[in-house]
Amino acid sequence: MRNILKGDVVRLKSGGPLMTVGNLKEQRAILGFAASTFVLCQWFENEHIMEKWFDAAVLQPAGRDAKEKIRL
After folding, report:
1. pLDDT at residue 10 above 90?
2. Distance between CA atoms of 68 and 10, rounded to whole angstroms?
3. Which residues of 28-59 are buried (b: 16+ CB within 10 A; e: fewer)?
4. How far apart are CA 50 and CA 65, in angstroms?
5. Is 3 domain-assigned?
6. 20 and 7 in contact (C-beta within 8 Å)?
7. Do 41 and 57 touch, CB atoms closer than 8 A?
8. How many alpha carbons lie under 13 Å from residue 4 in its C-beta half-sphere?
9. What gap in Å lies between CA 38 and CA 36, rounded to an integer?
10. pTM
11. In a domain, 60, yes or no
């Protein structure tokens, strides 16, 4: 997967809503666990902003046409 940057539009590999990347956090490898990148994603659900940290491995870029689907 390409590098994820703040402001990118992503979605879960399993589907779901389009989400905007709000922040990134690198976690070093410790006690036998591999290093990971965690991504803070934000989206709207029934006019309420939602946010959650996801492991970058479960996300994919939403694609170029996804930005056209986002309504302001």
Report:
1. yes
2. 13
3. eeeeeeeeebebbbebeeeeeeeeeebebeeb
4. 23
5. no
6. yes
7. no
8. 29
9. 6
10. 0.79
11. yes
Q: Residue type at 61?
A: P
pLDDT tens for residues 36-67? 999 999 999 999 999 999 999 999 999 866 65
- CB 10, CB 62: distance < 8 Å: yes
CA distances from 53 to 18, 66, 69, 72 (A): 14, 21, 23, 24
43 close to 66: Cβ distance less than 8 angstroms: no
The residue segments making up the domain with residue 13 are 9-69
- Tell me the C-alpha to C-alpha distance, in Å, between residue 38 and each of 3, 6, 55, 59: 12, 12, 5, 10
- The count of domains in the chain is 1
Task: Give CA angle at 62 (58, 67), nearest 5°.
Answer: 150
